[in-house]
Amino acid sequence: MPRTFQRPFPSVEKQMRALGERLKLARLRRELPTVLFAERLGISRDTLSRLEKGDPNIALGTYMRALRVLGLDKDMDAIARDDELGRKLQDRKLPGQRKPRTNTPGAALIKAEPPAKKTKKTDGQQ
Q1: Contacts of 71 (CB under 8 A, 6+ apart)
Q2: Per-residue pLDDT for 32 more than 70?
Q3: CATH architecture of the domain with residue range 10-71
């Protein structure tokens, strides 16, 4: 049965193209010819060309090997390290956290701010 691939979102395609371009520039800075780089990755020159164009159908493992050969594999450790959204979602589920009431009877009667305190008038004020 042939494999089918779903086309990624346009923003993801843009990111993949940018990654491919960065890998190509890193290879060129190291003066690695395509033949040698492809050989070190264990892929064909055609696959390397597709990788450097950011083809989303290239396996993630191939991108990882490319980063490793270029000495950039430590950069992958930074991806999703600080999951800010995930932490916020997790914090909302912690015990003792008060959840806002929205669908409770009488919630509309609760005022957002307490009424201002009245001060006594002195002889010079009206």
Answers
A1: none
A2: yes
A3: Orthogonal Bundle (1.10)
Q: Which parts of the chain are beta strand (E)?
A: none
Cβ–Cβ contacts within 10 Å for residue 90, how many? 10
Asked if 48 and 19 count as a contact pair (C-beta separation under 8 A), the reply is no
Q: Mind listing the pLDDT tens digit for each residue in 71-97?
A: 999 988 888 888 899 989 998 888 876
Query: What's at 68, amino acid-wise?
Result: R
**H or E stretch at 119:** none
- Percentages helix, strand, coil for the chain, rounded to the nearest 5? 50, 0, 50
Q: What is the C-alpha separation between 84 and 64, in angstroms, rounded?
A: 25
Residues whose CB falls within 8 Å of the CB of residue 13, separated by 6 or more in sequence, listed in order? 7, 54, 56
Which tokens is 17 given? Answer: 């193209």
Q: Residue 33: what are its φ and ψ, rounded to 5°? A: -70, 155
Measure the CA–CA gap between 52 and 56, rounded to whole angstroms. Answer: 11
